[in-house]
Amino acid sequence: MRKSLQLQAEMTQEFGTCVFDVTLDCEDGAPVGGEAEHAALVTEMALATTAATPDARIAVRVHPVDHPSFDADMAHIAGRAGQVLTHIMVPKVETVADVNRAQDALINAGAADLPLHVLIESPAAVHRAFDIAAHPRVQSISFGLMDFVSAHGGAITADAMGTGLGQNPSVLGQFTHPLVLRAKLEIASACHAHGKVPSHCVVTEFKNIDAIRMAAQKAARELGYTRMWSIHPDQIRPILQAMAPSEAQIEQASEIILAAQAAQWAPISHAGQLHDRASYRFFWQLIERAHQTGRHLPQEIHSFFAGIPKNVRFVA
Questions:
Q1: pTM value?
Q2: What residue ranges do the domains of the chain occupy?
């Protein structure tokens, strides 16, 4: 956890903005019997880090709502550090009732404004993805690949936990197995329907940089995901590169937005194509992604972001 926070600080200095979140983990990170001590540890780390670096983006994954330590996690972590955290991550969310339970715990802890990110990890939860995404407290939904595969009782083979990229076409990985692919698309569609952020699952082949690069590109370009989990520091830069717009895309979007501004947002012609407010929204969103991922922007575009506090941006 400390290495991740140090890397975040180093890359914030490099890019001029915080380009990824660090999620301190209580669900898998806490030893059995040591849950309270671990909750105290991550709370102190979050408080100490944000006191020294106010722009740091730190979240905490607590235990599931049906775990005996859930209430204690929320009371201590959200109660003491809710004002400095970007969000609380709740794993194994099955229903809207689970989200309501987490929301009640935040309110009871005095963290009524803290967003929730939720992990969907079962076929039943995927079925309810649109209802979960509609909840006003939910800011983002992540897909829990390994638990999703395990929830099928062996009906989905272990190959589906890997990418399958570059392997024999007969190997059904997470991008080709129909049930896994369907779940990813349902979650992404639910998020976009309700203005929430879909976050793609992990790539377990953490030493294979080509695999993480190809997976991030497919998640971003084909499946509509705008965030992605990493489980190793070496995965962060390939994910950022895949989620960020290219230089050519940034140049095109900047030209169109500046021309639209000059025309008082009336329709314009650019490179022989008509653009109006529908396409202006698309290209502005592209510029926002570029800004959030630390890409270089023309000086004229930077003026659009003047006065916006860094800590209100939800980065990729």
A1: 0.88
A2: 2-243, 247-312
